[in-house]
Amino acid sequence: MKNSIFKEIRNEKGNLLVVTLIILFAVSVIGATMVMVSSMDLKIAGNQRVTTQSLFVAEAGLNEAIHRLSLTDPTVVTIGGWTGNASISDSKPYDPNWKTKIYLTKPDATPASAGSIVNTGTIQDPTQPYMEYSEPNGTDGVLSIEHKWKDRDGDGTRDANEIIRYDPMMIPPENFTSGFPVEIVTVTGNSASGRRVIQAEVVKQTVIVRTLGALYVDKAVKLTGNCAFCGYNHAITTPVGTQPNACVPHHQASGNLPGVTSTGDDVKTQGSADILGNPIPIDDAATNPFYSLDEALGLPVADVKKMLANADNTSIVDPLNGITYINGDAKIVSNLVGEGLLYVTGDLNAAGSFIFKGLIYVEGDVQFTGSPWILGSMIVRGTSDFNFSSGNAAVLYSSEALSQALAGAMPCIVLSWREM
Question: What is the mean pLDDT of the chain?
Fold first, then answer.
């Protein structure tokens, strides 16, 4: 009896050992599984981290491309001992094969440009590690910018009339004749083992300037000397120095304005003053409104304030390109050239052969004693009647010069964004 009891106890001890071993094995399996799952979670988290980081890197590359497309041409900068033009642009007549590549090197260490292909380097600080949104050489993964196009004739060749442009005043805005080219920016972002490719369509912001004449004033003026104001709509290619009547070959088919427009105040001419325009040379109707700067630019007041706060120039320099904001009086004494917007809150006094394309907006009075030549429009509020001195000025209205010159100083906008 005792032996059978002892034998049964021994059997139970053996069963207990087996159960214990099974439990230990199960715990080991669970532990190993948890370790493996944790390891996989860490790997997944790591992959997600580098993948997300590579997307951020790609977006940084897109931001450099947009920034450089937005710069006024030329914009001279110094980077790591190199001094040159940081802007990226293609000008009229647009090249359908134009393409710019931004390499991950200093601008003076890139492959030589050839034909329609323009090579440049990044404007990142060379003393710091580069964000890897391009490659230092080769073609694969290099940040590229090119015109969007559509093969309209199916021949596989890019033609000038196949460049897709963007004009917010048209329906649909994408067309083949009006506005600025839509640029396709392709960026590959790399971070450790992560790699993300994005592509965006960007375009210069279009500014439709509202002006009522080549010269648009809010006070009475007397135009004397050999001044000339032509309100016919001129092409942006009108040669510098072209005077009315010689400007007729450069008139556009539509979009004409009076040569001089006031808000009901007198417009007197004397001497050899030459005023041309359509439908009439001078419009002094009392019903004419006067536009503030934001109204003339068609932009919200907040956007105009931001634009002026970030003006390219706050004093008179040569060349006078981009947004120039003079808070007070301005004096031009040299024969300088400029393009964009010149906004003066005080009086403008200019001598010499001043050449400007775009919009000049003066809150105070104007005195020209030289022979300035302006392609675009001039808007003068004035402080009192007959305080505008025209000298030998020539102002030729050009809607194209206004939009082109101002857009050169406007930022690019993103039309679409996708991941490849």
Answer: 90
Please provide the distance, in angstroms rounded to a whole number, between the alpha carbons at the two ends of the chain.
Answer: 83
Give buried/exposed letters for 32-43 (b at 16+ CB in 10 A, else e).
eeeeeeeeeeee
Share of the chain above pLDDT 70, in %: 92
Q: How far apart are CA 30 and CA 69, in angstroms?
A: 58
- 263 residue type, one letter: T
- pTM (predicted TM-score): 0.71
Q: Could you tell me where the DSSP H helices lie in 348-417?
A: 399-407
Instruction: Write b or e for each residue in 357-382: b if 16 or more Cβ atoms lie within 10 A of its Cβ, otherwise e.
Output: bbbbbbbbbbebebbbbbbbbbbbbb
The position carrying tokens 């532990």 is 31
Q: Are 90 and 204 in contact (CB under 8 A)?
A: no
So where are the chain's domains? 1-204, 215-407
The DSSP result for 28-79, as a single string, is HHHHHHHHHHHHHHHHHHHHHHHHHHHHHHHHHHHHHHHHHHHSPSS-EEEE
CA separation (Å) from 83 to 70, 76, 91, 123, 285? Answer: 19, 7, 22, 11, 52
Q: Residue length, the chain?
A: 420
